[in-house]
Specification:
alpha+beta; N-terminal domain of MutM-like DNA repair proteins; Helicase, Ruva Protein, domain 3; 2 domains; DNA-binding
DNA sequence: AGAATTACCTGAGCGC
DNA sequence: TGCGCTCAGGTAATTC
């Protein structure tokens, strides 16, 4: 499932390949993903140039001169950058054809993704307006997080997965960053001290940046290698020994999400 | 307002 | 072999 690092690596790759390129055709095969895909994409985009590609949380934003193409990969979505016009397979819902022979293909078996179109200011779009600070920006630090946890009873893991608090932290990196910060995922958010918030904010930044770095070899056309499970400290390792103390990792559910932690290393 | 729950969707894995 | 069940989990929408 694409998390922020995968989206960012995808963004960088597409930025290199597509900025300045002109859409010549849009082929729609699915009528809706999470939301209906606007049919006007097929008439608006041809002739337009990709001016820039930006990211907000896990959303990709393509500046298309007269408006924005907004893409979210959901749980199972990915973008493939292809050449020519290879025959579409199952769940290949949408193709963007470019004048230089490139084809950007949206594939998403579970249709949790989003492809939509809007004009105006991205920060005013309903899907983007309520998103909290970018975790890799200066706006996200210990003091901000401390301010956000104040009075909150919800588990700290659920709080950092709340996109209104901080953008783009999903289940994998929530687990990983809490382990790195040595904080139990189930702790009521409001019980965290300022220094713990600082540790956690730094840990979130660290695990995301590390993953983006490791993803430098990730290729959009090879979606399967989006991240590197063997490098995870806790995610997907319930019952296995902690990499630091060898204690078997606990696996619980928080808010319906698989949550893994070390009861010895995390307080 | 904050917290909890539901809805969306398909493939994989499992027990029988 | 196939059926039914559970799980995976991002996030918007809904309810409490």
């Amino acid at each position: 499932m694409p998390e922020l690092p995968e989206v960012e690596v995808t963004r960088r790759r597409l930025e290199r390949e597509l900025v300045g390129k002109r859409f010549t055709q849009v082929v729609l095969r699915a009528s809706k993903l999470r939301f209906p895909i606007p049919v006007e994409l097929t008439t608006i985009l041809p002739g337009r140039i990709v001016r820039s590609i930006e990211r907000r949380g896990k959303y990709l934003l393509f500046d298309c001169e007269c408006g924005w193409l907004l893409v979210h990969l959901g749980m199972t979505g990915f973008l493939q950058l292809l050449r020519g016009k290879p025959l579409p397979g199952k769940h290949d819902h949408l193709d963007f054809v470019f004048g230089d022979g490139h084809l950007l293909r949206f594939h998403d078996p579970r249709k949790f993704g989003i492809v939509t179109w809007f004009t105006g200011e991205p920060r005013q779009h309903p899907l983007l307006a309520g998103i909290g600070p970018e975790p890799l920006s200066g706006a996200f630090d210990g003091e901000y997080l401390f301010d956000s946890v104040r009075g909150r009873k919800v588990a700290i893991k659920q709080l950092i997965m709340n996109s209104a608090v901080v953008a783009g932290v999903g289940n994998i990196y929530a687990n990983e960053s809490l382990f790195r910060a040595r904080i139990r995922p189930g702790r009521p958010a409001g019980t965290l001290a300022l220094n713990e918030c600082s540790e956690l904010a730094a840990a979130i930044r660290y695990v995301l940046e590390k993953s983006i770095g490791e993803g430098s070899t990730y290729r959009v056309a090879e979606e399967a290698v989006a991240y590197y499970p063997q490098s995870f400290m806790v995610y997907g390792r319930g019952g296995e020994p902690c990499r630091l103390c060898q204690n078997p990792l606990d696996e619980i559910r928080l808010g319906g999400r698989s949550t893994v932690f070390c009861r010895r290393c995390q307080e």
